[in-house]
Specification:
- With 87 residues, the chain is mainly α.
- The protein has 2 domains: 30 residues; 41 residues, no CATH class.
- Helices cover 71% and strands 0% of the residues.
- It has 4 helices and no strands.
- The longest helix is centred in the last third of the chain and has 20 residues.
- The protein starts with 12 loop residues before the first helix and ends with a helix.
Length: 87
């Protein structure tokens, strides 16, 4: 008796290519790749998601929109600490 059910999904061509390359790079089948992605999606940690939502909202309120903004602010903070320690 078969324990799995076959389904069909439609993907944009670019997403299919990325999925195929990822599966090949990880030595998996497309089915394995999508099963793992779905497992991760379903079991996403709600506390982690809530934290991400709060920190994104706080960042946006402070004008932090990209990773480049975070890097820039981190560099500025480190520079200020170095200058403060040198005094």
């Amino acid at each position: 008796m078969r324990t799995a059910k076959t389904i069909s999904i439609t993907l944009p061509p670019d997403l299919l290519v990325k999925a195929q390359k990822t599966a090949e790079r990880e030595d998996r089948t497309i089915s394995e790749l999508f099963r793992e992605a779905l497992r991760r999606y379903i079991t996403a940690d709600p506390e982690w998601e809530a934290l991400l939502h709060r920190t994104r909202a706080n960042g946006e309120a402070q004008g932090i929109a990209t990773e480049a903004d975070v890097e820039r602010l981190s560099d500025e903070f480190r520079q200020e600490r170095r200058e403060s320690a040198a005094r």
